[in-house]
Design a protein that fits this description.
Alpha-Beta Plaits; 235 residues; alpha+beta; single chain; 3 domains; binds uracil; four-stranded antiparallel β-sheet; Structural Genomics Hypothetical 15.5 Kd Protein In mrcA-pckA Intergenic Region, Chain A
Length: 235
C-alpha cells in the first residue's frame, strides 16, 4: 500500500502537490471509489481514474502464488475453478494469466502476470529457465531413473526430453527433486511413467533462481519484488 499522492506522482507526469490538489477536489477515483485525502493508502495495483482518465497505477503485475491442488492454472474456464478465482476483485480486473501451466493436482509456484512479453520470455524453450519440482512416487526412486533423466528420457510416444537432474531425497526413498529446463505436457509424470513409476504428489518449488516463499500457504499469493523478478528469469 502506498499514499495516494505518491502513487499518482509515480505513475503520471503530475507532482505530488498537483496530485493532492486533484484528490482534494474529488477528481480521483481508485477502483471506482473516490479518494478523499492525499495520505489515503492505496494498493499499488489500483486502477486510478484521474479527471475522467483511467491510469493503471502499475503497468504490469507479477504475483507469486502457492497453487493448491484442484484448481486449473488458466485464466478462466467455463465450469472449473481456476487460480485467478483466488485473486481479489481488484486484481481480477487486470486479466492476469499464469505464466506456464501446472496440472490440476500439482501444487506450488505459479507466476501470474499481465505482462505477455515477460511470460513469453520465461517460458521460451531456448531460454532454458530451470524449474524445480518436489516429487513423491508410488515406488522407490532408482539410479536408473536418475541416469535416464541425465541422459534425456525418451517418452512412451517417442518424444525426447532434454537432460534433467534428479536429486534423490536422503531420508525418503520414494521422494526426490527434479529440475527441468523445458515444459512438455505432463512431462514429469510421463518421464517417471517410462520407469513404471506413478507420481503421487508433485509440487513446483523453484522457478529460475527464485524459490516459492515458504510463508505462502496453499492458495496465498503476493507480489514479486524487482529483485525477485530478475531471479525468476535466472539472473
Ligand atoms: N510435470 C507434470 O507432469 N505436471 C506438472 O504439473 C508439471 C510438470
Amino acid at each position: 500500500m502506498v499514499r495516494a499522492d505518491k502513487l499518482i506522482a509515480s505513475n503520471t507526469a503530475l507532482s505530488r502537490k498537483d496530485a493532492a490538489k486533484l484528490i482534494r477536489s474529488g477528481q480521483v477515483l481508485s477502483d471506482g471509489i473516490p479518494v478523499t485525502s492525499p495520505d489515503q493508502k492505496l494498493s499499488e495495483t489500483a486502477l486510478l481514474c484521474i479527471n475522467g482518465r483511467t491510469v493503471a497505477a502499475k503497468k504490469f503485475v507479477y504475483l507469486m502464488m502457492n497453487k493448491p491442488s484442484g484448481l486449473l492454472s488458466v485464466s478462466r474456464a467455463p465450469t472449473d475453478r481456476t487460480v485467478t478465482d483466488l485473486l481479489t476483485p481488484e486484481l481480477k480486473k487486470r486479466e492476469l494469466f499464469p505464466a506456464g501451466r501446472l496440472d490440476r493436482d500439482t501444487t506450488g509456484f505459479v507466476l501470474l502476470t499481465d505482462d505477455g512479453v515477460f511470460a513469453h520470455n520465461i517460458l521460451a524453450p531456448k531460454k532454458h529457465i530451470p524449474k524445480t519440482y518436489e516429487v513423491r512416487l508410488d515406488t522407490p526412486v532408482t539410479d536408473e531413473m536418475a541416469r535416464g533423466f541425465a541422459e534425456g528420457t525418451v517418452l512412451a510416444d517417442g518424444s525426447p526430453c532434454a537432460p534433467s537432474v534428479l536429486i534423490p531425497d536422503e531420508t525418503d526413498p520414494f521422494s526426490c527433486e527434479v529440475v527441468l529446463t523445458q515444459g512438455m505436457y505432463h512431462q514429469i509424470k510421463r518421464m517417471f511413467g517410462v520407469y513404471g513409476a506413478g507420481v503421487v504428489t508433485l509440487h513446483r518449488s523453484v522457478m529460475g533462481n527464485l524459490r516459492l516463499d515458504p510463508a505462502l500457504a496453499p492458495g496465498e499469493y503476493r507480489e514479486l519484488t524487482e529483485e525477485e523478478l530478475q531471479a525468476v528469469s535466472g539472473r
